[in-house]
């Protein structure tokens, strides 16, 4: 027994030392990146075997004297989609819906599919970006309102896009789609008889105790200011019908809390996450689950989702087998920087 206790003690000390080394080296990577990009605020969270580590550099805004930390609020943008796909997977587990079901009978009133589209598009097609439906034209929306482009997306415009579609030109081929995830949010509302906001709180935010993940009201003191690629201030998108595609705001602490639930084995969120990790789309360039990219090499399978709003960038990544996860949040739209950060962290520390 004494020998067993000694071995356990050595393992615990070894794991602790490993975690401290990872966090120290990760902090060094983030610090170096911030020194090269001093105007960009960065917040990073890391979880491994249920141990959490955080590091952050920069200020809430260029004018602020307040340091960014693990509680600072960012726009997670399209990372919202993995929350939506988790809700869809929970509905599958609850036998309220199947991934292979056609969307026809799940769409709200007002949607009338053309005959050529009936019994064609599956729930999984929407969630893996292969439905072939035309998407929202963000270029035109930005011209109309550069600060709040989604403000002009309404139920009327969405139904018009879907109802006027006569042909799914690229059905079965990957094409990133925000309208697909907007429809999934509406489908969730129909099958549960509740708002997307309420479903999200009841099934993910409250069970995981994600107390600082914001939906409609994000007027808080510790919110970051977003900046476009040219350095201009960019407003956070306001909540509307497109919420399920990308309007959630959160911080490193809450997103690590979410990853903790995902990596666990005994809750509805983790069980649903496993459903989303199944391959629903594959070509020579990518493998897709429900809302999440699946990347594999000789030793690892990792799950990745990025998010870019008009003024902020983010990326989340986890490895279920090795039991780690990472969230990276930037207060500037800079997809290259957030991808470079993840690549360096993964290649030097986590591979």
Break the fold down into its secondary structure elements and pairings.
Layout: H1 2-36, E1 42-48, E2 51-57, E3 74-75, H2 80-93, H3 123-127, H4 138-144, H5 155-163, H6 178-192, H7 196-208, E4 226-227, E5 233-234, H8 243-246, E6 249-250, H9 252-263, H10 268-276, E7 281-282, E8 287-288, E9 293-296, E10 301-308, E11 313-319, E12 324-330, H11 335-350
Antiparallel strand pairs: 1-2, 1-12, 3-6, 4-5, 7-8, 9-10, 10-11, 11-12
What's this entry about, in short?
This is Beta-lactamase. It contains 11 helices and 12 strands.
How does this model look, in words?
Keywords: Signal. The protein contains 11 helices and 12 strands. Strands 2-1-12-11-10-9 form a 6-stranded antiparallel beta sheet, sandwiched between helices. It has a single domain (1-7, 22-350), classed as 3-Layer(aba) Sandwich (Beta-lactamase), CATH 3.40.710.10. The protein has 351 residues and is of the alpha+beta class.
CATH architecture: 3-Layer(aba) Sandwich
Count of domains: 1
Rg value: 21 Å
Residue-averaged pLDDT, rounded?
A: 93
Order of helices and strands: HEEEHHHHHHEEHEHHEEEEEEH
- The number of helical segments is 11
What's the CATH topology label?
Answer: Beta-lactamase
| Shape assignment | globular
Q: By helix and strand content, what is the structural category?
A: alpha+beta
Tell me roughly what share of residues is in helical segments. 25-40%
User: What strand line-up does the widest sheet have?
Assistant: 2-1-12-11-10-9
CATH top level is Alpha Beta
Distance between the termini: 35 Å
Point out poorly predicted stretches. Answer: 7-15
How many strands in all?
Answer: 12
Sheet of most strands: 6 strands, antiparallel
Q: What is the CATH H-level superfamily? A: DD-peptidase/beta-lactamase superfamily
Q: Roughly what fraction of the amino acids lie in strands? A: 5-15%
């Amino acid at each position: 027994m004494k020998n067993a206790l000694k071995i356990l003690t050595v393992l615990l000390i070894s794991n602790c030392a490993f975690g401290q080394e990872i966090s120290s080296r990760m902090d060094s990577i983030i610090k170096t990146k911030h020194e090269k990009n001093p105007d960009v605020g960065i917040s990073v969270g890391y979880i491994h075997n249920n141990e959490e580590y955080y590091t952050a550099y920069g200020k809430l805004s260029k004018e602020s004297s307040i340091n960014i930390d693990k509680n600072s609020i960012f726009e997670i943008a399209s990372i919202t989609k993995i929350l939506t796909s988790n809700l869809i997977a929970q509905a599958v587990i609850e036998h309220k819906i199947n991934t292979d079901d056609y969307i026809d009978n799940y769409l709200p009133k007002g949607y009338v599919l053309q005959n050529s589209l009936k019994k064609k598009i599956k729930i999984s097609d929407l969630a893996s970006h292969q439905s072939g439906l035309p998407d929202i034209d963000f270029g035109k929306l930005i011209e109309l309102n550069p600060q709040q482009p989604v403000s002009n997306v309404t139920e009327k415009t969405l139904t018009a896009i879907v109802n006027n579609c006569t042909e799914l030109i690229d059905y079965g081929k990957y094409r990133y789609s925000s309208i697909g995830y907007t429809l999934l949010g509406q489908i969730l509302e129909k099958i549960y008889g509740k708002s997307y906001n309420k479903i999200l709180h009841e099934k993910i935010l409250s069970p995981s105790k994600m107390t600082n993940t914001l939906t409609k009201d994000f007027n808080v003191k510790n919110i970051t200011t977003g900046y476009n690629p040219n350095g201009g201030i960019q407003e956070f998108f306001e909540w509307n019908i497109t919420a399920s595609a990308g309007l959630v705001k959160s911080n490193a602490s809450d997103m690590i809390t979410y990853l903790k639930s995902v990596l666990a084995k005994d809750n509805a969120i983790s069980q649903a996450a496993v459903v989303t990790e199944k391959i629903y789309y594959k070509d020579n360039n990518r493998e897709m689950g429900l809302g999440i990219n699946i990347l594999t090499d000789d030793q690892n399978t990792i799950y990745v989702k990025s998010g870019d709003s008009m003024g902020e960038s983010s990326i989340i990544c986890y490895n279920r087998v090795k039991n780690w996860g990472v969230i990276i949040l930037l207060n500037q739209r800079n997809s290259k920087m957030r991808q470079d950060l993840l690549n360096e962290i993964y290649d030097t520390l986590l591979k």
